[in-house]
Amino acid sequence: MFIDIYCTQEKKYNQNTYGDYFVSKRDPETDRLLAVLSDGLGSGIKANILASMTATMLLKFIEADSDVRKACEIMMNSLPVCQKRKISYSTFSVINCNSEGVTKIVEEGNPQFLWIRNNELMEPECNIITSETFKNRKMHVYKIQLKEGDRLIFCSDGVTQSGLGTDRFKLGLRRKGLVDAVLHKLKDDMFISSRDLSKFIVEFACSLEPDRKAKDDVSAVCIHCRTPRKSMVFTGPPYHMEKDNYYANVFKNFDGKKAISGGTTANLISRELNIPIETPVSRNIGKLPSISYMEGVDLVTEGILTLTRTYEYLEDENEIQDDAAGDLVKFLLESDCIIFMVGAKLNQAHYDPNLPIEIEIRKNIIKKIAKVLEDKYVKKVTIQFM
């Protein structure tokens, strides 16, 4: 079972930074997904510092396999209280989930999470721990068993308080309004990804505000338990030519989505498997070569130029264009477990001094793509060199 997670955020109107902070990590040694969503008091730089400090420290605690309750209590007792408003400087939600679906959740101050199974809201049992230092601070601790198809939704109060004071939601959207909106969305699209669902929640919350301007920082974290979507990207020919046939048969027998990045690689697969390549002459956008087509292949692109631009798009999704690299980004983000088959044979064209200096040889750019997929998008990535 694969645990898919994604966070979408929107800054408070007229602020330069997020007052909420989200951090996550997939621990390969223990096969756990760790994540923290923290909401700093107020907005802007001060809130961002408080939230990022809280989230980062908590992630370190649970990554070190510290007792979740103890770690959260240390944080809860360490954070100062605003003398004017008498509330915590930062609230948080902590998620610790393994591949078997055993999940521990601790919340302090954030809206209660949603647990949805078969399009119905589940009501898990909760243990409440009161801070020894501040009696008004209470941790809500849950231990649940997730099944395939289950979803978890966490948010900051920018979601549940959206629309506050409007004719439609005088008291804000609140938890019930969020539940109704999410269940309606899932009824329309039961296979929606965590990425798209979190974006829907944030956009919906912002749509409730006058002029669609967020009155607070808005964050939504969505988790979906599902059968992993597997994909493989082939780029570069093998170092030894006698491995060409083996390389092509690995491609042929892979059970999942397949992409080829590189003209030499595409010609190798075409030759060994006797599959013709069709290359259209249109859609050269942003100076990247167009995609090609091969039967049984989900995507065929040019090599180093497209891979380099793909890395840039993954770093900043706002820069994505409708070109071959944009198609490859979509291919990667719609996958959960990604294998890069990287041929180690060097292409002398990559050393042409006329090419832009930022274009690196294949193995290095693949390592960069793998890292951003793991760190930012929490994908499972494997690189195999041939």
- Spatial separation of the terminal alpha carbons: 29 Å
The count of β-strands is 16
Q: What does the largest sheet look like?
A: 6 strands, antiparallel
* Helix fraction bin: 25-40%
Task: Please tell me the total number of domains.
Answer: 2
CATH topology assignment of the largest domain: Phosphatase 2c, domain 1
Q: Count of DSSP helices?
A: 10
What sequence of helices (H) and strands (E) makes up the elements?
Answer: EEEHHEEEEEEEHHHEEHEHEHHEHE
Name the CATH class of the largest domain: Alpha Beta
Strand line-up of the largest beta sheet: 2-3-4-5-9-8
**What would the average pLDDT be, to the nearest integer?**
86
Describe the structure.
This protein is an alpha+beta fold. It has two domains: 2-226, 4-Layer Sandwich (Phosphatase 2c, domain 1), CATH 3.60.40; 230-385, no CATH class. Helix content is 31%, strand content 26%. It has helices spanning 44-63, 68-78, 157-160, 174-188, 194-207, 244-253, 263-273, 304-315, 324-333, 362-375, and strands spanning 2-10, 20-27, 32-40, 90-98, 102-108, 114-117, 120-122, 127-130, 138-145, 151-155, 218-226, 230-235, 257-261, 299-301, 337-342, 380-385. The strands form three sheets. Strands 2-3-4-5-9-8 form a six-stranded antiparallel β-sheet, with helices on one face. A hairpin with a 4-residue loop joins strand 2 and strand 3. Helix 1 (44-63) packs antiparallel against helix 2 and helix 8 crosses helix 9 (324-333). The two termini are 29 Å apart. 43% of the residues are buried. Residues 355-359 have low confidence and may be disordered.
